[in-house]
Protein backbone atom coordinates (compact mmCIF):
# COMPACT_ATOMS: atom_id res chain seq x y z
CA UNK A 1 0.00 0.00 0.00
CA UNK A 2 1.48 3.35 -1.05
CA UNK A 3 1.68 6.37 1.26
CA UNK A 4 -0.84 8.21 -0.98
CA UNK A 5 -3.27 5.29 -0.75
CA UNK A 6 -2.87 5.12 3.04
CA UNK A 7 -3.57 8.85 3.29
CA UNK A 8 -6.61 8.54 1.04
CA UNK A 9 -7.99 5.66 3.09
CA UNK A 10 -7.44 7.58 6.31
CA UNK A 11 -9.25 10.64 4.94
CA UNK A 12 -12.15 8.61 3.53
CA UNK A 13 -13.11 6.05 6.19
CA UNK A 14 -15.16 3.05 5.21
CA UNK A 15 -18.85 3.91 5.39
CA UNK A 16 -20.77 1.18 7.20
CA UNK A 17 -24.36 0.67 6.01
CA UNK A 18 -27.12 -1.90 6.45
CA UNK A 19 -25.57 -3.78 3.51
CA UNK A 20 -22.10 -4.06 5.05
CA UNK A 21 -20.99 -7.65 5.66
CA UNK A 22 -19.82 -8.26 9.22
CA UNK A 23 -17.20 -10.73 10.44
CA UNK A 24 -16.00 -11.05 14.01
CA UNK A 25 -13.68 -12.75 16.48
CA UNK A 26 -14.96 -14.41 19.65
CA UNK A 27 -12.83 -15.21 22.67
CA UNK A 28 -11.98 -14.27 26.21
CA UNK A 29 -10.08 -12.05 26.44
CA UNK A 30 -10.18 -10.23 23.08
CA UNK A 31 -9.90 -6.59 24.13
CA UNK A 32 -6.27 -6.40 23.02
CA UNK A 33 -6.68 -8.60 19.95
CA UNK A 34 -4.87 -7.51 16.79
CA UNK A 35 -7.46 -9.26 14.64
CA UNK A 36 -9.73 -6.23 14.00
CA UNK A 37 -6.76 -4.17 12.81
CA UNK A 38 -5.42 -6.95 10.62
CA UNK A 39 -8.73 -7.96 9.08
CA UNK A 40 -10.09 -4.48 8.42
CA UNK A 41 -6.91 -3.57 6.54
CA UNK A 42 -7.28 -6.83 4.61
CA UNK A 43 -10.85 -5.99 3.64
CA UNK A 44 -9.74 -2.50 2.59
CA UNK A 45 -7.04 -3.98 0.38
CA UNK A 46 -9.74 -6.00 -1.39
CA UNK A 47 -12.02 -2.99 -1.75
CA UNK A 48 -15.03 -4.87 -0.39
CA UNK A 49 -17.82 -3.73 1.90
CA UNK A 50 -16.88 -5.79 4.94
CA UNK A 51 -16.09 -4.84 8.53
CA UNK A 52 -14.57 -6.87 11.37
CA UNK A 53 -15.28 -6.52 15.10
CA UNK A 54 -14.43 -8.30 18.37
CA UNK A 55 -16.91 -9.89 20.77
CA UNK A 56 -15.85 -11.02 24.22
CA UNK A 57 -17.59 -14.36 24.80
CA UNK A 58 -17.11 -16.19 28.08
CA UNK A 59 -16.17 -19.86 28.34
CA UNK A 60 -19.12 -22.16 27.78
CA UNK A 61 -20.99 -19.68 25.57
CA UNK A 62 -19.78 -20.92 22.18
CA UNK A 63 -23.17 -22.39 21.24
CA UNK A 64 -24.88 -19.07 22.01
CA UNK A 65 -22.25 -17.27 19.91
CA UNK A 66 -22.92 -19.51 16.90
CA UNK A 67 -26.66 -19.05 17.34
CA UNK A 68 -26.07 -15.29 17.34
CA UNK A 69 -23.92 -15.64 14.22
CA UNK A 70 -26.89 -17.19 12.43
CA UNK A 71 -29.39 -14.72 13.87
CA UNK A 72 -27.40 -11.61 12.99
CA UNK A 73 -26.22 -12.92 9.63
CA UNK A 74 -22.50 -12.65 10.34
CA UNK A 75 -20.48 -13.64 7.26
CA UNK A 76 -17.49 -15.09 9.05
CA UNK A 77 -16.15 -15.84 12.50
CA UNK A 78 -12.66 -16.11 13.94
CA UNK A 79 -12.42 -18.26 17.05
CA UNK A 80 -9.78 -17.96 19.74
CA UNK A 81 -9.35 -19.28 23.27
CA UNK A 82 -11.24 -20.72 25.06
CA UNK A 83 -13.70 -21.72 22.32
CA UNK A 84 -11.72 -23.57 19.63
CA UNK A 85 -12.53 -27.08 20.83
CA UNK A 86 -16.18 -26.34 21.65
CA UNK A 87 -16.81 -24.77 18.24
CA UNK A 88 -15.29 -27.80 16.52
CA UNK A 89 -18.08 -29.90 18.01
CA UNK A 90 -20.87 -27.37 17.43
CA UNK A 91 -20.51 -26.41 13.75
CA UNK A 92 -22.36 -28.39 11.07
CA UNK A 93 -19.22 -29.75 9.40
CA UNK A 94 -15.44 -29.36 9.62
CA UNK A 95 -12.45 -29.33 7.29
CA UNK A 96 -9.83 -32.09 7.30
CA UNK A 97 -7.41 -30.07 9.44
CA UNK A 98 -10.08 -29.04 11.94
CA UNK A 99 -11.26 -32.62 12.24
CA UNK A 100 -7.75 -33.90 12.91
CA UNK A 101 -7.11 -31.21 15.51
CA UNK A 102 -10.63 -31.20 16.98
CA UNK A 103 -10.13 -27.44 16.95
CA UNK A 104 -11.64 -24.61 14.88
CA UNK A 105 -10.31 -21.07 14.49
CA UNK A 106 -12.48 -20.10 11.50
CA UNK A 107 -16.20 -20.48 10.82
CA UNK A 108 -17.47 -20.13 7.26
CA UNK A 109 -21.10 -19.71 6.26
CA UNK A 110 -21.58 -22.06 3.30
CA UNK A 111 -23.95 -21.14 0.44
CA UNK A 112 -26.54 -23.55 1.89
CA UNK A 113 -26.34 -21.78 5.25
CA UNK A 114 -24.42 -24.50 7.05
CA UNK A 115 -21.56 -23.47 9.37
CA UNK A 116 -18.23 -24.97 8.33
CA UNK A 117 -15.29 -25.08 10.76
CA UNK A 118 -11.71 -24.65 9.56
CA UNK A 119 -8.27 -24.38 11.13
CA UNK A 120 -5.92 -21.96 9.37
CA UNK A 121 -3.26 -21.63 12.08
CA UNK A 122 -0.85 -24.29 10.83
CA UNK A 123 -1.29 -23.39 7.17
CA UNK A 124 -0.74 -19.77 8.18
CA UNK A 125 2.70 -20.70 9.48
CA UNK A 126 3.50 -22.65 6.33
CA UNK A 127 2.51 -19.61 4.26
CA UNK A 128 4.61 -17.34 6.48
CA UNK A 129 7.63 -19.60 6.00
CA UNK A 130 7.05 -19.77 2.25
CA UNK A 131 6.94 -15.95 2.09
CA UNK A 132 10.42 -15.97 3.63
CA UNK A 133 11.71 -18.51 1.11
CA UNK A 134 11.40 -21.58 3.35
CA UNK A 135 9.75 -24.63 1.78
CA UNK A 136 9.01 -27.22 4.47
CA UNK A 137 8.68 -30.09 1.98
CA UNK A 138 11.37 -32.63 2.82
CA UNK A 139 12.60 -30.65 5.82
CA UNK A 140 13.29 -31.94 9.34
CA UNK A 141 11.73 -29.97 12.19
CA UNK A 142 12.10 -29.55 15.93
CA UNK A 143 8.86 -28.30 17.55
CA UNK A 144 9.16 -26.93 21.08
CA UNK A 145 5.82 -27.43 22.82
CA UNK A 146 2.82 -29.71 22.40
CA UNK A 147 -0.15 -27.41 23.06
CA UNK A 148 -2.77 -26.17 20.64
CA UNK A 149 -0.39 -24.01 18.58
CA UNK A 150 2.17 -26.80 18.33
CA UNK A 151 -0.47 -29.32 17.29
CA UNK A 152 -1.73 -27.08 14.48
CA UNK A 153 1.85 -26.73 13.24
CA UNK A 154 2.51 -30.47 13.42
CA UNK A 155 -0.65 -31.22 11.44
CA UNK A 156 0.18 -28.65 8.74
CA UNK A 157 3.79 -29.77 8.44
CA UNK A 158 2.68 -33.35 7.97
CA UNK A 159 0.18 -32.36 5.26
CA UNK A 160 2.91 -30.34 3.51
CA UNK A 161 5.18 -33.40 3.36
CA UNK A 162 7.71 -32.54 6.01
CA UNK A 163 10.35 -35.30 6.27
CA UNK A 164 10.76 -35.65 10.03
CA UNK A 165 9.33 -34.00 13.17
CA UNK A 166 10.74 -34.05 16.68
CA UNK A 167 8.31 -32.87 19.36
CA UNK A 168 9.97 -31.58 22.54
CA UNK A 169 7.76 -30.84 25.53
CA UNK A 170 8.00 -30.67 29.32
CA UNK A 171 5.37 -33.39 29.51
CA UNK A 172 6.52 -36.33 27.43
CA UNK A 173 3.01 -37.82 27.52
CA UNK A 174 1.56 -34.67 25.91
CA UNK A 175 4.24 -34.74 23.24
CA UNK A 176 3.54 -38.38 22.50
CA UNK A 177 -0.19 -37.69 22.18
CA UNK A 178 0.60 -35.19 19.42
CA UNK A 179 2.45 -37.81 17.37
CA UNK A 180 -0.86 -39.08 15.99
CA UNK A 181 -1.04 -35.89 13.91
CA UNK A 182 2.10 -36.88 12.00
CA UNK A 183 2.16 -40.67 11.94
CA UNK A 184 5.41 -42.42 11.03
CA UNK A 185 7.48 -39.23 10.79
CA UNK A 186 7.26 -37.87 14.35
CA UNK A 187 8.87 -38.77 17.65
CA UNK A 188 8.90 -37.20 21.10
CA UNK A 189 11.55 -36.12 23.58
CA UNK A 190 11.39 -34.37 26.94
CA UNK A 191 12.25 -30.69 26.79
CA UNK A 192 14.49 -31.06 29.85
CA UNK A 193 16.45 -33.97 28.35
CA UNK A 194 19.50 -31.95 27.35
CA UNK A 195 21.23 -34.79 25.51
CA UNK A 196 18.17 -35.66 23.43
CA UNK A 197 17.48 -31.99 22.73
CA UNK A 198 21.06 -31.42 21.59
CA UNK A 199 20.92 -34.45 19.29
CA UNK A 200 17.58 -33.35 17.85
CA UNK A 201 18.72 -29.77 17.25
CA UNK A 202 21.83 -30.96 15.43
CA UNK A 203 19.77 -33.08 13.03
CA UNK A 204 17.00 -30.68 11.95
CA UNK A 205 16.66 -27.82 9.48
CA UNK A 206 13.94 -25.79 11.22
CA UNK A 207 13.35 -25.03 14.90
CA UNK A 208 9.91 -23.73 15.93
CA UNK A 209 9.05 -22.41 19.38
CA UNK A 210 5.39 -23.08 20.11
CA UNK A 211 5.68 -22.48 23.86
CA UNK A 212 4.91 -19.22 25.67
CA UNK A 213 8.50 -18.79 26.82
CA UNK A 214 9.67 -15.32 25.82
CA UNK A 215 6.16 -13.87 25.59
CA UNK A 216 5.36 -10.28 26.63
CA UNK A 217 8.14 -7.75 27.03
CA UNK A 218 6.92 -6.97 30.56
CA UNK A 219 6.99 -10.61 31.65
CA UNK A 220 9.68 -12.10 33.87
CA UNK A 221 10.06 -14.71 31.14
CA UNK A 222 10.76 -12.21 28.35
CA UNK A 223 14.54 -12.63 28.65
CA UNK A 224 14.28 -16.43 28.59
CA UNK A 225 14.66 -18.74 25.63
CA UNK A 226 13.29 -22.28 25.28
CA UNK A 227 16.49 -23.38 23.56
CA UNK A 228 20.11 -22.84 24.50
CA UNK A 229 21.90 -20.52 22.08
CA UNK A 230 24.76 -22.97 21.58
CA UNK A 231 22.37 -25.45 19.92
CA UNK A 232 21.64 -23.02 17.08
CA UNK A 233 23.79 -22.94 13.95
CA UNK A 234 23.78 -20.95 10.69
CA UNK A 235 22.11 -23.91 8.93
CA UNK A 236 18.97 -23.50 11.02
CA UNK A 237 15.81 -21.54 10.33
CA UNK A 238 14.46 -20.50 13.73
CA UNK A 239 10.79 -19.55 14.12
CA UNK A 240 9.16 -18.14 17.25
CA UNK A 241 5.36 -18.16 17.33
CA UNK A 242 5.51 -15.52 20.07
CA UNK A 243 4.95 -12.06 18.55
CA UNK A 244 4.83 -9.89 21.67
CA UNK A 245 7.61 -8.91 21.79
CA UNK A 246 8.30 -9.23 18.10
CA UNK A 247 11.99 -9.91 18.79
CA UNK A 248 12.27 -12.61 21.44
CA UNK A 249 15.40 -13.81 23.19
CA UNK A 250 15.31 -16.96 21.03
CA UNK A 251 15.29 -14.90 17.82
CA UNK A 252 18.04 -12.60 19.11
CA UNK A 253 20.21 -15.60 19.93
CA UNK A 254 19.48 -17.21 16.56
CA UNK A 255 20.34 -14.01 14.70
CA UNK A 256 23.62 -13.73 16.60
CA UNK A 257 24.42 -17.34 15.69
CA UNK A 258 23.84 -16.65 11.98
CA UNK A 259 20.53 -18.49 11.61
CA UNK A 260 17.60 -17.29 9.56
CA UNK A 261 14.91 -15.95 11.91
CA UNK A 262 11.14 -15.63 11.41
CA UNK A 263 8.83 -13.95 13.92
CA UNK A 264 5.38 -15.12 14.98
CA UNK A 265 3.51 -12.12 13.58
CA UNK A 266 3.77 -13.63 10.12
CA UNK A 267 1.78 -16.68 11.18
CA UNK A 268 -0.91 -14.49 12.77
CA UNK A 269 -1.27 -12.39 9.63
CA UNK A 270 -1.14 -15.25 7.13
CA UNK A 271 -3.72 -17.32 9.01
CA UNK A 272 -5.98 -14.24 8.98
CA UNK A 273 -5.45 -13.84 5.23
CA UNK A 274 -6.45 -17.48 4.74
CA UNK A 275 -9.58 -16.81 6.78
CA UNK A 276 -10.52 -13.98 4.45
CA UNK A 277 -9.91 -16.18 1.44
CA UNK A 278 -12.34 -18.73 2.90
CA UNK A 279 -14.98 -16.08 3.62
CA UNK A 280 -14.71 -13.95 0.49
CA UNK A 281 -13.02 -16.13 -2.11
CA UNK A 282 -10.18 -13.60 -2.47
CA UNK A 283 -6.72 -13.34 -0.93
CA UNK A 284 -6.11 -9.92 0.67
CA UNK A 285 -2.83 -7.99 0.61
CA UNK A 286 -0.75 -9.73 3.28
CA UNK A 287 1.96 -7.07 3.27
CA UNK A 288 -0.58 -4.38 4.15
CA UNK A 289 -1.96 -6.56 6.94
CA UNK A 290 1.49 -7.26 8.36
CA UNK A 291 2.47 -3.59 8.38
CA UNK A 292 -0.78 -2.68 10.14
CA UNK A 293 -0.21 -5.36 12.78
CA UNK A 294 3.39 -4.26 13.31
CA UNK A 295 2.30 -0.65 13.71
CA UNK A 296 -0.39 -1.68 16.21
CA UNK A 297 2.18 -3.62 18.24
CA UNK A 298 4.54 -0.66 18.33
Describe the structure.
A hairpin with a 5-residue loop joins strand 5 (106-109) and strand 6 (115-118). The protein has helices at 3-11, 35-46, 62-72, 84-90, 96-101, 121-131, 148-159, 172-178, 194-203, 249-256, 265-280, 286-297, and strands spanning 21-27, 50-56, 76-79, 93-94, 106-109, 115-118, 140-144, 164-169, 186-190, 206-209, 237-240, 260-262. Residues 1-11 have low confidence and may be disordered. The strands form 2 sheets. The chain has a 6-stranded mixed sheet, sandwiched between helices. Helix 2 packs antiparallel against helix 12 and helix 6 (121-131) packs across helix 11 (265-280). The chain has 298 residues and is α/β, with parallel strands linked by helices. The chain is globular, with a radius of gyration of 19 Å. It folds into 2 domains: 3-119 and 266-297, Rossmann fold (3-Layer(aba) Sandwich), CATH 3.40.50; 122-263, 3-Layer(aba) Sandwich (Rossmann fold). The longest helix has 16 residues, at 265-280. It has 12 helices and 12 strands.
Amino acid sequence: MTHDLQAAMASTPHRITASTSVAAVIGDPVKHSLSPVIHNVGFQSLGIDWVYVAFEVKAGQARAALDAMRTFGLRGLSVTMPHKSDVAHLVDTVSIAAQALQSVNTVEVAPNGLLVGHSTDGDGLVASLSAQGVDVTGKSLLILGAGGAARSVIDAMYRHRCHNIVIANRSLASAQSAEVLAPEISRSIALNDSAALRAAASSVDVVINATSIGMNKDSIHSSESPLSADLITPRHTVVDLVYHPIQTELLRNAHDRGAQTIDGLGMLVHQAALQQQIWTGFMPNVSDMYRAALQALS
